[in-house]
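To illustrate the input format used throughout this study, we show a single complete record. The first block contains the structure-token representation of the backbone; no residue identities are included at this stage. The design step must infer an amino acid for every position from geometry alone.
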């Protein structure tokens, strides 16, 4: 058993744990996405959950090829 996290195998956050191997890199921040992480598969690449959290509505729409319409008052 590991003396730092008292688990076997090590807890993933334990400094003694083996370096996790990134399955792929996030296309926005370049950070690795690891087994069990959530991500979004897009036509431009995979985006990690952290980046998804930071995205604005505009960025989301851009991702899906949409854009916000500007509301205009209709002429009577
Ligand atoms: Zn450990
Ligand atoms: Zn990212």
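Output of the design step:
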């Amino acid at each position: 058993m590991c003396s730092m996290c008292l688990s076997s195998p090590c807890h993933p956050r334990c400094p003694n744990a083996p370096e996790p191997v990134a399955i792929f890199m996030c296309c926005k921040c370049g950070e690795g996405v690891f087994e069990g992480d959530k991500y979004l598969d897009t036509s431009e690449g995979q985006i990690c959950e952290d980046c998804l959290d930071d995205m604005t509505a505009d960025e989301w729409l851009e991702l899906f090829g949409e854009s916000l319409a500007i509301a205009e008052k209709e002429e009577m």
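Structural context for interpreting the output: The chain has a mean pLDDT of 91. The pocket of zinc ion (ligand 1) is lined by residues 2, 4-5, 7, 10-11, 14, 16-17 (CB under 6 Å).
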